[in-house]
Specification:
8 helices; elongated; about 15% strand
Length: about 180
C-alpha cells in the first residue's frame, strides 16, 4: 500500500522541518521543498503552501500544484492575510487559507475535513469590522496581484502616481 504524499512548500526551514516531522509521524510520504521550481511532476494528495516565499508567489505555486494534481487538497498559509489573496488562492485551487501562527490541529482540520465555501467565508480573518485603511490596503493588494506586482501598472489602474502608491504601501505594511 502506498503512503499518501504531502507537499510542504515553505521557505522557513525550521517550520518546514517541524511540519514534515508531524506529518511523517502520521504516516505520510513527505516532499518538503522551499521553492516552486522543486515542485515534482507527480500526483500529490495534499499540500501546504506558504503565500510569501523568498523567490516565488505561493498563489502561483497553488496553481501549478493544482494543474499537476487536480484532486490535491491544498492549504495556503500566510502571516500577511488579506481578503484579496484568500480569494485568489481559493480560485486557483486551495481548499483553505490559514493565518500564521497556526497549531498543527488547525492545519489537520483544514487539510482533511471537508468544508464548504460558505463555512470558510463565514469564518473571517478578523472578527472586528475592518477599518477603511484595511479595505484600502486589501484593494491595493488585489490590484497589485492583478498587475503581477508591477507598481507602475497598479498605480495607473488606481489613478495614483507610482510614488504615492509606494508611500501607501510603506504606510500600511501587511499585518503580522
Amino acid at each position: 500500500m502506498h503512503k499518501k504524499k504531502i507537499l510542504i512548500l515553505e521557505d522557513n526551514e525550521d517550520f518546514r522541518t517541524s511540519l514534515a516531522l508531524e506529518f511523517e509521524d502520521r504516516g505520510f510520504e513527505i516532499i518538503a521543498i522551499e521553492n516552486m521550481s522543486e515542485i515534482p511532476d507527480i500526483p500529490i494528495q495534499y499540500a501546504v503552501v506558504d503565500l510569501r516565499l523568498k523567490n516565488d508567489n505561493g498563489i502561483q505555486c497553488v496553481e501549478k500544484i493544482h494543474n499537476i494534481s487536480p484532486a490535491c487538497r491544498i492549504v495556503m498559509l500566510t502571516g500577511y492575510p488579506s481578503l484579496a489573496t484568500a480569494v485568489q488562492a481559493m480560485k486557483k485551487g486551495a481548499v483553505n487559507y490559514l493565518t500564521k501562527p497556526i497549531n498543527f490541529s488547525q492545519l489537520e482540520k483544514a487539510l482533511f475535513e471537508e468544508e464548504t465555501s460558505e463555512q470558510i467565508l463565514n469564518n473571517p480573518v478578523n472578527d472586528s469590522s475592518p477599518s477603511l485603511a484595511r479595505h484600502e490596503r486589501e484593494y491595493i493588494e488585489y490590484v497589485l496581484a492583478e498587475c503581477q506586482g508591477n507598481i507602475t501598472n497598479a498605480a495607473k489602474k488606481l489613478g495614483l502616481h507610482r510614488q504615492s502608491l509606494q508611500r501607501k504601501l510603506k504606510k500600511y505594511p501587511p499585518r503580522k
